[in-house]
């Protein structure tokens, strides 16, 4: 057991370093992953990739990493031509959004197939609460061409605990390795103090892990977690995930409804920069007398003449009586 934990710690560090390397070397990353998917004959010969779930997951993840690499090259080098300009289009974020949704649904269906209904429902709700593309996703144009996504800390946590529960029941002796890639993906944006890098870290750590498993599956021999599974823990864990997901679903929809999502979905430096560029979102309600608000903060007013239009609010500081007269 001690050896397993020691190897897990080493693996997490290596995953972190590899993620950082691929992030900094966008060209090497593209060529490496293009070559990696070409090793699929080895998967067939060795039989390391078994079952529909593993095949679909491995191929979709590696293919998506290649597309991401092309998008990063296009953004970094501003290459001319319709193909490269098309890759710089924000609409491509819908592709990544869709791949993430499919990736979650694949695992959720596997949960349903194995009888973990509560975790299946959690996976479905995770898909519902993915921040919309391209509003909250994009490729940065700051000299790094990072994949950025403004996810909340709660969503990241729920995704991690949902995925851990799934792999706990599905992966068997591979659970320890799966735990490593999820922890590495959580640690990378925390260490870098850029929460918006979570998707990027998750994409690279998952691709690295699947590539290793497809070609040299040494995890059962050196990092086995075969004796960790308990049926009651697995099912109760899924139920807890679902119970945690419900309040988050309401909170998420409330942020969208009130127009606060532009601020609350961003964290740290990204939120500060957004508020600097959009000062109207930083309005704080003034109070008069015993806590009586004398004007509305941005995003909190639904105009009477158009109840569907949440964002079109007047400038801050306008008295309440003047608002009602409009």
Count of domain modules: 2
In total, how many beta strands?
Answer: 4
Pattern of helices and strands: HHHHHHHEEHHHHHHHEEH
Q: How much is the average pLDDT? A: 86
Helix content: 55-70%
**SS strand fraction:** under 5%
Low-confidence stretches: 284-326
Give a verbal description of the structure.
The chain is mainly α. It folds into two domains: 267 residues, no CATH class; 44 residues, no CATH class. Helices cover 66% and strands 3% of the residues. It is built from 15 helices and four strands. β1 and β2 form a beta hairpin. α4 packs across α10 and α7 packs parallel to α12. The N and C termini lie far apart (70 Å). The C terminus is likely disordered. Keywords: Membrane, Transmembrane, Transmembrane helix.
Please supply descriptive tags for the structure shown above.
326 residues; mainly alpha; two-stranded antiparallel ribbon; disordered C terminus
Secondary structure topology:
Blueprint: H1 2-24, H2 26-37, H3 40-46, H4 51-77, H5 82-87, H6 92-114, H7 117-128, E1 137-139, E2 147-149, H8 153-170, H9 175-192, H10 198-215, H11 219-222, H12 231-258, H13 261-264, H14 268-277, E3 287-288, E4 292-293, H15 320-325
Antiparallel strand pairs: 1-2, 3-4
Helix pairs in contact: 1-9, 1-10, 2-4, 4-6, 4-10, 6-7, 6-8, 7-8, 7-12, 8-9, 8-12, 9-10
Keywords: Membrane, Transmembrane, Transmembrane helix
Transmembrane segments: 6-23, 30-46, 52-71, 115-133, 174-191, 234-254
